[in-house]
Amino acid sequence: MAKVPKVKLNNGLEMPAFGLGTFMSKPNEVAEAVKYAIDRGYRHFDTAFAYENESEVGRAIREKISEGVVKREDIFVTTKLWCIHHEPSRVEAACRKSLENLGLDYVDLYLIHFPVGFVYIDEKTLIPCKEGTSSILTNDVDYLDTWKAMESLVKAGLVRSIGLSNFNAAQTERVLKNCEIKPVTNQVQCSIEQNQKKLIEFSRKRDIIITAYSPLGRPNPSERKPSFFYENPTKAIAEKHKKTPAQIALRYVLQLGTVPIPKSVTKARIDENIEIFDFELSSDEMKLLDALHTGERVGAILKMIDNDHPYYPFKAEF
Ligand SMILES: NC(=O)c1ccc[n+]([C@@H]2O[C@H](COP(=O)([O-])OP(=O)(O)OC[C@H]3O[C@@H](n4cnc5c(N)ncnc54)[C@H](OP(=O)(O)O)[C@@H]3O)[C@@H](O)[C@H]2O)c1
After folding, report:
1. What is the pLDDT of residues 144-164, one digit of tens each?
2. Candidates 3.40.50.2000, 3.30.160.100, 3.40.525.10, 3.20.20.100; correct CATH number of 6-308?
3. Distance from the CA of 258 to the center of ligand 1, in angstroms?
């Protein structure tokens, strides 16, 4: 069973340097995946209110705790505040709802999922759109006000650490200049095709860890086929190390200094993805993979948000 090292966060707590993603893991399959992953050495789980699977993720973790396989303190659980809950008055209730879904007293990490707030209609309308269009209704809640409400959650003991997701460097700096509690991480897309080198360097200097989402480029032969995953030089490097392209892609972002959280509900892939701590890519191999950066972003939702919104994060270079 693979042994995953831990990284130290800027608040003195630790986070396993690798985790299991659960976006688009269906409720009927995610509990099995989480339980299997715990048996295989995974200790870090990433979910979100918006993934609508917190209950199953939490149930799987609690089952493994009651079986005596792990203790609560061995497991690192991340969930996220969704964009309809950015108004400060909604933040605590949203966090308590996530805790209730998970069946846990606290989460290890709570993130602002995205810097842009959406109009609140009701708890079920996660993506409020203008009638007859696929254009999201946003609001102008300042993420600094949301951040203050996130800080209160730490003080209330509901969450151990707080962080950001999909924030650019200027937005991160603005939080840092105005916060009482620093974000421990910024969870962003990071893979061979979107290597985030500038944001990683910026964040490293400020003691903020980058958590790498979509580290495999979300490969799925019927929907998305990132060439870096299926072609050379990744394939050739994989053959040389007797590893798979997925393991090369994950080792690459690990060596960039990030914490990868690949998603899988497939047992063989859950096994495969964690086996990245027993080999190293050379600096020449890292350079070959660096050259595959295209800057492409995954995620259909990005196309639905008005990119003129003042807090839209991806117009900036990084
Ligand atoms: N903060 C955010 O805004 C944000 C956005 C996106 C994602 N995330 C988080 O990051 C996690 C990972 O990102 P992601 O799910 O977008 O993409 P990803 O992990 O790069 O890719 C997941 C896809 O790759 C497949 N896969 C997994 N291991 C594989 C392997 N060894 N070989 C071939 N295919 C493999 C999975 O299929 P199977 O499951 O069928 O095996 C799934 O279709 C998410 O699940 C979520 O927790 C956060």
Report:
1. 999 999 999 999 999 999 999
2. 3.20.20.100
3. 16
